[in-house]
Amino acid sequence: MKVGDLWTEKEHEFLFCNENGHHFYPTTPTTWWRRFTKKAGVRFIRLHDLRHTSATTLINQGIHAKIISERLGHSDIRITMDTYGHAIRAADQEAANKMDEAFYKRKNI
After folding, report:
1. Per-residue pLDDT averaged across 28-36, rounded?
2. Residues whose CB is less than 8 angstroms from the CB of residue 40 and which lie 6 or more positions away in sequence, other chains included
């Protein structure tokens, strides 16, 4: 018997589920995460905040918003832009500042 044969959940695709596809009790993943952060000695943030951290980090690394949108599972890039537009604008401003610095330094050489 293969693991896939045990999968009985047909209606939903849960992020946190047991080996047959059924969801855990809603607080279980948070409880595991809280224990992990405590044991690892890192500051606790909500699991959902990891999603935002990931998206913002990718934006600041210059990854295209369409790619980020797909990774987040957004049905439309507009959702990503509406949610993370402020971070994208900040990254764009930082890029403009870097370009300005590059030209300013060359001008003074």
Report:
1. 95
2. none
In whole angstroms, what is the distance from residue 13 CA to residue 5 CA?
Answer: 16
Task: Tell whether 10 and 60 lie within a shared domain.
Answer: no
For residues 4-21, give the mean pLDDT: 79
Q: How many domains does the chain have?
A: 2
Cα torsion for 81, 87, 92, 94, to the nearest 10°? 180
- H helices present in the chain, as ranges: 28-40, 47-60, 65-72, 77-107
Residue 107 has pLDDT above 80, yes or no: no
- Is residue 107 located within the same domain as residue 67? yes
53 shares its domain with 21? no
C-beta neighbour count of 63 within 10 angstroms: 14
